[in-house]
Amino acid sequence: MFGLFKAKPAHAGMVSFTLAMDIACAADELFGLVNPAAPTFWKRAAGRLETIAPGRFRLHLHSEPECVRTLVVTEAEPGRVLALDTQATPRTGYVVSKNYRYCITPVDARNCTVTLHMEARFVPGLGKRDYDTGCRAVAEDLHTTLSMLKVHAEQGAGMVCRIDRLQSAA
After folding, report:
1. At 154, is the secondary structure helix, strand, or coil?
2. Could you tell me if residue 5 is inside a domain?
3. b or e along 18-47 (b: 16 or more beta carbons within 10 Å of the residue's beta carbon)?
4. The dihedral of CA 45, 113, 68, 54: what is its sign?
5. pLDDT grade, residue 57 (50/70/90)?
6. Considering the chain, what is the average pLDDT of its residues?
7. Stretch 106-134: mean pLDDT, rounded?
């Protein structure tokens, strides 16, 4: 009876989120934007990218100088699919690691639809409130990632930098 009001642990394991967005960009060009091995990788404008080994990278973002993100390419089908496992050191929030899978579907020669599947693994033993907070943060990250990718593809890295500066100033 005394355990009746005790906080229950939340779901354990991976949590999945999916979002699709139309982007005015050719599928092959967009693949280069999401591929850390490509010189056009969209996060290069936001920081410094180191190649550790083939398919393994370290990303140092200007906005988070204390944090290093490790990116490992787990699947790559040029112009169609790119999957990454990511981990931030030190860990930020409740997320231990994330998996991103970009599925790119050409609409025509200059447009495509990108579906981003994101899985997040949280620290074990989270209570429901912290779990819900973590899920909201990951869902926001998913939307922000695709929205900024769209801005980068359609309006360029300069516009992404301007948006980042405006958000930092607010």
Report:
1. helix
2. no
3. eeeeebebbbebbbbbbbbbeeebbbeebb
4. negative
5. very high
6. 91
7. 94
State the pTM of this model: 0.89
The tokens describing 140, both together, are 């926001």
62: alpha, beta or left? (left if phi > 0; alpha if psi -120 to 50): alpha
| 22-33 pLDDT, tens digit each | 999 999 999 999
The structural domain count of the chain equals: 1
Q: What is the CATH number of the domain that holds 106?
A: 3.30.530.20
63-119 pLDDT per residue, tens:
888 999 999 999 999 999 999 999 999 988 899 999 999 999 999 999 999 999 999
The vertex-23 CA angle with 95 and 40, nearest 5°, equals: 70
User: Judging by DSSP bridges, how do beta strands 81-89 and 68-77 pair with one another?
Assistant: antiparallel
- Tokens standing for residue 57: 């990278």
In a domain, 4, yes or no: no
Q: Which domain holds residue 90?
A: 14-169
- Angle at CA of residue 151, ends 148 and 152, nearest 5°: 85
Give dist(CA 90, CA 83) in Å, integer.
22
Residue 1 lies in a domain: no
User: Has residue 3 been placed in a domain?
Assistant: no
